[in-house]
Amino acid sequence: METALQTDLVTVADYLAGEETSDVRHEYLGGLVYAMAGETRVHNTIAGNLYIAIRQHLRGGRCKLYMSDIRVNLNLRDDPYYYYPDLVVTCDPRDTDPRFVQHPKLLIEVMSPSTERVDKREKFFAYTTIESLEEYVLIAQSPAEIAVYRRGESWRAVRITGLDAALTLASLNLNLPLSAVYEGL
Predict the structure, then answer these.
(1) Whether pLDDT at 66 is above 80
(2) What per-residue confidence (pLDDT) applies to 7?
(3) What CA–CA distance (Å, rounded) separates 82 from 30?
(4) How many CB atoms neighbour CB 116 within 10 A?
(5) What is the pLDDT of residues 72-129, one digit of tens each?
(6) Other residues' Cβ atoms within 10 Å of the Cβ of residue 13
(7) Sequence-ordered strand ranges (E) for 14-152
(8) Which domains does the chain have, with CATH numbers?
(9) What is the pLDDT of residue 68?
(10) What are phi and psi of 6, to 5 degrees?
């Protein structure tokens, strides 16, 4: 995430209208708008590997998986926030808006040096206030290291390292070898 584009507060309506025509994605934090950092090929490969594995697992079920262009909307201290996670899964029938999810079950962020601090602190704090969220997953690009935070474990991190290890997504009843997550790198 980069610096704020403007210091004047932007309305949600203006933000959403601007996103419809913008070539650059922006996140909205209580009236402030921030441009998103660009993705790398490594980031894209990891997110793509996860998308394929999770999509295959969810096939035919009621849960839906979305990748980077679908926002998550939440309210934090009565302020609206819109983030673009790398992957989001919702199983909630109330999630009917075509552009954002409000009741995620699982959120995944692939961290980069420019987003790591925001993903670990700001987004962690914001995401864990969402009542429907069961898991928040942070994935390092290098080395092979993943942190999984679960509501049922008081949001304490479970760290997984090394390509011989496996990522357990308890919210989806899915186990993935880290070698599959990092395949092609």
Answers:
(1) yes
(2) 57
(3) 9
(4) 14
(5) 999 988 899 999 999 999 999 999 999 999 999 999 999 998 889 999 999 999 999 9
(6) 8
(7) 26-29, 32-35, 64-67, 71-76, 79-83, 87-90, 100-101, 104-110, 135-139, 145-150
(8) 39-181 (3.90.1570.10)
(9) 84
(10) -145, 155
What are the tokens at 85?
């996670």
| All residues at 6 or more sequence positions from 16 whose CB lies less than 8 Å from its CB, including other chains | 99
Output the pLDDT for position 156.
97
Which residues contact residue 20 at a Cβ distance below 8 angstroms, ignoring those fewer than 6 apart? Answer: none
C-alpha triplet 171, 1, 141: angle, nearest 5°: 55
If you count them, how many residues does the chain have?
185
Q: Which two tokens stand for residue 34?
A: 């921030």
Residue 36: its pLDDT value, please?
A: 81
CA-wise closest residue to 28 among 69, 68, 70, 73: 73
HSE-up (13 A, CA, CB side) for residue 40:
13
Q: Report d(CA 62, CA 64) in Å as an integer.
A: 7
Residue found by looking up tokens 């989001």 in the block: 88
Question: Distance between CA atoms of 169 and 185, rounded to whole angstroms?
Answer: 22
CA 92 to chain centroid = 17
- If phi > 0 it is left, if psi is from -120 to 50 it is alpha, else beta; for residue 78 that is left
pLDDT digits (tens, 9 = 90+) for 165-174: 999 999 999 9
For residue 18, pLDDT over 80 is answered with yes
Check whether 4 has a pLDDT greater than 80.
no
Q: Structure tokens of 32?
A: 């402030």
